[in-house]
Amino acid sequence: MTKRSWNDANQGDPEHSIRWNPNPASFSPLPNPPTSEQAMAMNHADPAQIPPLPNISRKVKACAACRKQKMVCFMHASVRCFMDKSGPPCKRCAEKVLSCVLNKSLQTLINERVPQTNALIHDLEVVSTSVQHILKTLNLPSMPQLESSRFIAPSPVSGEQGDSNHLPDIGPSCDNSPDLSPQDEENLPRIPMHSVYHLTKLSALRSPEADIDASPGKSIHAGPHADFISQGMISLKDAEMLFHLYTDRVDHFAYGVGARYKTLEALRCNSAVLTAAILTVAAMHDPKANSLYPTCDREFKRLMTESLFDRHVDRDHLRALCVASYWLHDSSWTLTGIASRRAAAMNIGSHLETLRKKNDEDAADFIRIWFLIYICDQHLSTLYCRQGEMREDRAIEHAEWLVESSTVTIGDQRLVSQVTLLTIIHKIRALFGTDSGKPIPTVFASHISSFSRQLDQWVGRWSTTFPEVQEGFGTFPRKGCVFHYQPAKLYLLSHVFHGLGCSPIPTEFLEAAHGATAAAMAILNIVITEPVVREALVGLPCYVQSMIGFACMFLMKLITNYGNQLVDRNEFIDILSRLVAAYQATPVNSWHLVHHMGNGLERMLRALQQQPSNTTIDPAASDINLHRQANLDLDFSLAELGSMDMSMVNTEALFLMSGSMDMGVMGG
Fold first, then answer.
1. What is the DSSP letter of 220?
2. CA distance 245 to 238
3. What is the CA 246 to chain-centroid distance, rounded?
4. What pTM was estimated for this model as a whole?
5. CA 417/CA 399 separation, integer angstroms
6. How far apart are CA 178 and CA 174, in angstroms?
7. Rounded Cα distance, 622 and 659, in Å
8. Per-residue pLDDT reduced to its tens digit, 37-86
9. Tens digits of per-residue pLDDT, 190-222?
10. Residue 465 contacts by C-beta under 8 Å, 6 or more apart in sequence?
11. How far is CA 380 from CA 281, 334, 426, 647, in A?
12. From residue 472, how far is each of 129, 234, 250, 251, 409 by CA, in Å?
């Protein structure tokens, strides 16, 4: 009877779960294969928690025939038999005419397939990265992360779509053949950065103006189904309603610059960011769109944030910046700064020459955008008493060329009139500077008179130039011309109070002081008595709303420091109560500045009414500037109207609310 082998002996024994190994130290039970549930859990588990596969270190070194004879077959050895790099047959099998078959181990098979597997993984990552880029361009939701990427070390391709903190360091992009104009070859260098660009070929140093779009077709089309409307964040019905509200009513206040497209579909096809900007502004103006405004505003800021480091933007991107800067009070300062730098980099002001020579509609469109950016910049510079981003270039100095061209539109006259008015205000600000802590010299009285005459000439000209009735805008253009004149007059003449505190007004400035008081009262009376202005209150930009608040605070401070010498207290209370009623009767979204202005003015009125008429108001008790705790005087200009940057505060802490309005009247 022959002896059984160890394998035969162990096969029928259920109690044995180990196999014999000549090495006693290697005795270990074989693991049971994972169930289907365990395998699925392992596929979705953290790779760090998955036990590593055992390393297979033993490799087949002999063909089957040699192994049967207990021989070792080496590829490079000098013993017994040989197998060259080309594989079987080995030398021994060839000599004996034997079948030479190399039974490869699992490790060998894996090693041979690694290059093909890596190539396949790389190809899949390239396809995935391309699809992700397409989805991002179309503003569609991105694909989920590849399952295989959780178990495979990221390659240079897959690493691009991972965390930006783990992006591989890449060098700056370069142009292989930078274009040289004939002037560059013939003349001496004129622009320093051009010289650096030609030396380094770094594409980031190339002037963006060479890539400016000259036609709508060069815009990056997002597609009609690639925005937050198609994603269901707002319904198409609501979007259509907001779009028509903006184009039919709101855009008239921005001189027709924003409504380039006649349908919502065309707008969505051409610019996602302009779509979001227009719908955001429209939602802010619609009293029934309280729930829509946060969604639109969030989408607009998301798109604007994503494009912050884009080197090139199109014309509609600038248009979106204009629309948002004109009305969105919580971000206007930031957006105007971005818009002015973008527009300057694209040199769109140079299109005025093209407009004058060719009467080109595209050139006129660029100039309108340039003028509106200038208006927004000057508005904010005036409100904050800061230096503006833009300067008077040739296009600003010759703004009237726009109305002399054959491409003139209904809103161009009003647009140019605002540019010329703000040019005067810019000169006023340049004369007095931004430091309002010191009284101005009395020799400035002649300058004040000169600027006052310029403002009188401005209103005399444009109030008769505008038509009596403008289609779609009624009689507002003429009324609005006078309405814009009074804040400019107040801004100019109020400088005579700077640094005076409660000191007497110099004799040289008495006329200007009375003129400032009359201008402030005129602003409030226009809002109260002119129905067309009162109806337009909701559509006016935040600059005009701020100037109305400025007039109220100016008059209150006159009462605080000078009693009834310049302003009759009872008359002011009566006008203020009617102004509060006008604001509160205006149907407006709760996010709109008019809503907050109405609440702040009401608190201001209530505080005034509670104070006895013969009570001396203690300015030191005011909380208008809590961070300084200073006594209030008439040295406030427009900077104290919003002592904080409006771009840094939320809608519940605007510059005309709560403490900002309860100034000078809370003391006993």
1. -
2. 11
3. 20
4. 0.66
5. 9
6. 9
7. 8
8. 454 444 444 544 545 555 555 555 667 767 666 665 544 444 455 666 66
9. 567 656 656 666 655 555 554 455 443 344 444
10. 413, 417
11. 18, 10, 11, 11
12. 49, 28, 11, 11, 13
Q: Phi first, then psi: give them for residue 470, nearest 5 degrees.
A: -105, 135
Euclidean distance between CA atoms 434 and 413, whole angstroms: 31
Q: State the amino acid at position 46 in one-letter form.
A: D
User: Taking a C-beta distance cutoff of 8 angstroms, is the pair 287, 587 a contact?
Assistant: yes
**431 with 425: CB under 8 angstroms?**
no
Q: Helix (H) and strand (E) counts for the chain?
A: 26, 2
For residue 240, which of 271, 214, 206, 266 has the smallest C-alpha distance? 266
Q: Tokens 């595209």 identify what position?
A: 362
Query: Residue 89, preceding bond cis, omega within 30 degrees?
Result: yes
CA angle 283, 284, 286 (to 5 degrees): 60
Let me know: does 659 contact 623? Beta carbons within 8 Å: yes
- The pLDDT tens digits of the residues spanning 333-384 come to 899 999 999 999 899 999 998 898 888 899 999 999 999 999 999 999 998 8
Task: Name the amino acid, one letter, at 588.
Answer: V
Structure tokens at 256: 């027709």
What is the four-CA torsion angle of 522, 655, 297, 368, rounded to 10 degrees?
Answer: 40
Residue with tokens 């990265």: 129
Q: What share of the chain is helix, strand, coil (3-state, %, to 5)?
A: 60, 0, 40
At 172, is the secondary structure helix, strand, or coil? coil
CA distance 291 to 284: 10
Q: Which residues are paired to 174 by β-bridges?
A: 202
Q: Are the C-beta atoms of 586 and 534 separated by less than 8 Å?
A: yes
In the block, tokens 């008429």 appear at 613
- Spatial separation of the C-alpha atoms in residues 516 and 510, rounded to whole Å: 10
